[in-house]
Amino acid sequence: MPDNGHNRRMARKKAVVDAAIARADQDKGLLLVLTGNGKGKSSSAFGMVARSLGYGYKVGVAQFLKSRRDTGEEKFLGNQPNVEWHVLGDGFTWDTQDRDADIATAKRGWEVAKQMLKDDSLHLVVLDELTYLLNYGYLDKVQVCSDLASRPAAQHVVITGRAAPQCLLDMADTVSEIRDVKHAFRSGIRAQPGIDL
Ligand code: ATP
Ligand code: MG
Question: Which atom of ligand 1 is nearest to the CA of 196?
Fold first, then answer.
């Protein structure tokens, strides 16, 4: 094949990518934060659960704000032998607006999460929709960050939810902000099984 500009550019690019891959030679338990207003935060987290299970690892999931229990992720992943699945947000009192009761629910939930953050048999812990509890002030950000920091060194944690507080962004290894460009719901399409729930 005759050499041309395209091939030379691709070879240079490959050399740069290969060098970057060679430099990234460390292993560590990562803190990942998936935030922003676009769709794809929790489903990405459950994608990493599936990946981890594919290697035979154990995974813990805590869902902090759960408006429904009939989701595909709970039906499928909640029954897997290597998954510990906790729904911790069933007790929030949206109707009665009882802030003290909500704080008590949040604190009880965090105690369960903390047990997972002490369990070094868990390769990955997903704290789904945790950001809301921090933003509402139901949980103390400093305490949550300190509990996250003292987890087992090899344990990965994924936190999802809109408007992740700065302290989480600061301590995270990987942060993705998913931007809402458009969403079918705004065109009158209801949540679709397998896609939205
Ligand atoms: P998903 O679970 O689909 O990855 P998410 O975790 O990024 O979504 P959440 O705020 O937790 O987003 O919302 C969960 C539900 O709300 C899903 O059914 C999702 O499709 C829908 N949703 C997410 N973002 C938007 C949006 N910008 N507008 C309307 N509906 C949304
Ligand atoms: Mg979500």
Answer: 18
Question: How remote is the CA of residue 171 from the centroid of ligand 2, in Å?
Answer: 21
pLDDT tens digits for range 99-131: 999 999 999 999 999 999 999 999 999 999 999
Q: Look-up: residue for tokens 């691709």?
A: 10
Average pLDDT, the chain: 94
Confidence at 1, pLDDT banded by 50, 70, 90: low
If one residue of 32, 33, 35, 39 were mutated to test the ligand 1 pocket, choosing by the most ligand atoms within 8 A of its CB, it would be 39
Residues touching ligand 1 (Cβ under 6 Å) are 37-43, 160, 180, 183, 185, 191, 196-197
Is the Cβ–Cβ distance between 80 and 58 less than 8 Å?
Answer: no
**Of 125, 123, 161, 121, nearest to 141 (Cα)?**
161
Which CATH superfamily, name and number, covers 27-187?
P-loop containing nucleotide triphosphate hydrolases (3.40.50.300)
Query: Which of 109, 94, 8 shows the shortest CA–CA distance to 60?
Result: 109
> How do strand 58-63 and strand 83-87 relate by DSSP bridges?
parallel
Number of H helices and number of E strands within the chain? 7, 6
CA angle 84, 88, 90 (to 5 degrees): 130
| Residues with a beta carbon under 5 angstroms from ion ligand 2 | 41-42
